[in-house]
Each structure stands twice: as C-alpha cells, then as structure tokens.
Design brief:
Largest sheet: none
Helix content: over 70%
Shape: flat
Oligomer: single chain
Number of domains: 2
Structural class: mainly alpha
Number of helices: 11
Order of helices and strands: HHHHHHHHHHH
Distance between the termini: 67 Å
Mean pLDDT: 87
C-alpha cells in the first residue's frame, strides 16, 4: 500500500461525504460495528482514534475494513490504494470510452437523483444525444468555442509578453485614464500600443463570433424541431 496516496485520498473522500472524522466514525459503527470489537462502552472513541491514525499515517486498515471504507465512501479500493486515478473503475473506463471528465460524468450520474422523474430525464437526454442533428449542433458549438479560445489566446499572449504588472498598468491607462502618449514612459506607451493591436485582432474575430452564434442557434433549432416536430 502506498501510504501517502492512501492518506491523501482517504482524507479527500472522507471530507466530501463526512465533514469530520467523528461523523465518519459514527457512520462506520452504525453500519459495520466497531473495528476493535470492544465489549466496553469505549467503542465510539476507539473508532474515532482509528480514523485519526489512518489520516496521520500511523496505521492502515485491513483488507476487510478497507472494503467497508469503500462502501461508505462510494469508491473502489484501487483508488484509495493508488491503482487508478478516478474514484471507481466504472468512472475510469467511462472516461476512456467517452472522453468526458469525472465532473461531467458525475453530473450525468446524478441527474436521476435530483429529480423524481428519472425515466423522463433519461429518455430526453438519450433522444437529444442520438438525434441526427446532435453532431451538427456540437460542430456549431465548437466553432463558437474556437472564437472564444482565439480571443483568450490573444490576451494570454499579451500578458506573457508584457508581464502581469505592465499589462495591468497599460490596460488601466488605455481604457480608464485620459493620457497623452508624449507624457508616458516609452515602455508603457509601447505596452498600450500592443493592447490596441490586440483589441483590433479581437474585434476582427467579433464578426466570426456573430456568424458562429447564428449557426449555433440554427443548429439548435433544427435539433429541437427534430425532437419535437411541429404538427399542423
């Protein structure tokens, strides 16, 4: 067992579901009983002390206790032991199969838990993804995303070139303060010129963005019409 990995991942998972060590200890005892099987009334404190030792690296759980821990924390033993990077083998495989992040998969997984109409939500989601217009919708969304990526890249390149301090000073001067170029230090004046050039590049992307937004709306309308055709 990689003790460091176990400590970090156990703490992370425990805190997500149980805010305190004591809360986890109480949940463990309620479901599985005390680990030490003590016949005294110190069972609760014994379990609490054991959880502390796990998180401090002073002891590790046995195999059967590890299985109980995974049951309480909704994860696989391989995750706590460092064998996989996601909470469960299922999530690990789904990430490989779909390319979606763990967070995205969690959202999809939790849809049935946030509404009482689970069957309807699943049916709608399945229909949405399997529509013949879904790919067109995603392609249009990608075009819009590309516009934002290019605008963001212009900003990031400018910050990398000028440095955060000079960028902020030039940005504030350019947009918020009246100035005469002859009154400014040469370095600041050059930085302002670069910001002006960057603004022009982003402005040129605005037309492309408008087209992308229009095409995205058209693709979405076609998708919705495919799912819910108008009837005369």
């Amino acid at each position: 067992m990689n003790t460091i990995v176990f400590i970090n991942r156990f703490k992370k998972m425990r805190k997500e579901k149980y805010p305190t060590q004591n809360a986890f200890a109480e949940a463990y005892i309620a479901k599985f009983g005390s680990i030490r099987k003590s016949k005294t009334k110190k069972e609760d404190s014994d379990m609490f002390g054991t959880v502390q030792k796990w998180e401090q690296g002073r002891s590790v759980p046995t195999a059967d206790v590890l299985c109980n821990i995974c049951d309480l924390l909704d994860c696989d033993a391989d995750y706590l032991l460092g064998g996989i990077t996601e909470k469960t083998h299922c999530i690990e495989e789904m990430k490989k199969y779909t390319g979606l992040s763990e967070q995205a998969l969690d959202v999809l997984h939790n849809i049935p838990h946030i509404t009482c109409e689970t069957t309807e939500y699943k049916r709608i989601l399945n229909s949405f993804i399997t529509s013949g217009y879904f790919i067109s919708f995603m392609e249009a969304l990608k075009d819009l995303d590309d516009c934002f990526e290019k605008k963001e890249a212009i900003d990031q390149e400018l910050i990398a070139t000028l440095g955060k301090k000079l960028y902020k000073q030039a940005f504030n001067t350019y947009y918020h303060e009246p100035y005469e170029p002859t009154d400014l230090p040469e370095e600041l004046c050059n930085a302002i010129n670069k910001i002006s050039d960057a603004e022009s590049k982003q402005y040129n992307l605005s037309y492309t963005e408008k087209i992308a937004r229009y095409e995205l709306q058209q693709a979405f309308d076609a998708l919705i019409l495919d799912l819910y055709p108008r009837k005369l």
